Amino acid sequence: MYTGPVVAVTASIREEERPRRVRLNAAYLTALENAGLVPLVVPPLADPHAADRILAGVDGLVLTGGEDVAPDYFGEERHPALGTVNKLRDATEIALISAARRLRLPVLAICRGIQVLNVECGGSLIQDIAAQRPGALAHNGEGPRHETVHSVTIEQDSILALATGATRLDVNSLHHQAIDRPGDGLRVTATAPDGIIEGVESSDDWWVLAVQWHPEEMDAGAQPGAEPGPLFKAFAEAVRSS
Ligand code: MN
Prior knowledge:
- This protein is α/β, with parallel strands linked by helices.
- The protein is 27% helix and 21% strand.
- It has a nine-stranded mixed β-sheet, sandwiched between helices. The protein has a two-stranded antiparallel sheet with strand order 2-3. A two-stranded antiparallel ribbon has the order 7-10.
- The chain starts with 5 loop residues before the first strand and ends with a helix.
- Manganese (II) ion binds at residues 139, 150, 173, 175, 192, 196, 198, 212.
């Protein structure tokens, strides 16, 4: 019988949609299963305090892409270019991150995931790159989701550098927000040529790999049964040894 480690994977519910549905791009689940992990989908919870009990039953946490994080969490007014927010999802994911830190569970954070992680650590976000960083590259790619849009420079001795064996990568880019001020205990490990932060990790022994791009859409590992991509492979190794 197959008994791979189970990891919690966050998802969304768009309250304005009828019928209300749990939403998650299946590419995340495929990439995790290809790496030998069993994904357990966690929607926004009516009671975020359940985060502790959920994480007590799993071996890792994956924070996925989605809505903008409400700027209330970093003490800013809403910029006119702010997109859809989901405060129940924000509260659930913030509770999950804080429980994962207490439990020392490995965390893989993607796109919105790196942003909500940063906010939970006390950092702030650029609410809209085009409006607030006029000279920046176009990060909100409009082509196919796997298409590489810009490069990132990777810090040596990071989980990211070890996982990819690279100091520079071409990545896809499907975001209009990004980290502004990094949160406490986070180390910037990847940066786009325009200075936009694209990767962070924990500066202590907590295993955290957070990226602004979408590895689940880029790698060949996005296809069912394919070899896992390097970030998912590294996460699975961390989960197995935690
Ligand atoms: Mn980008």
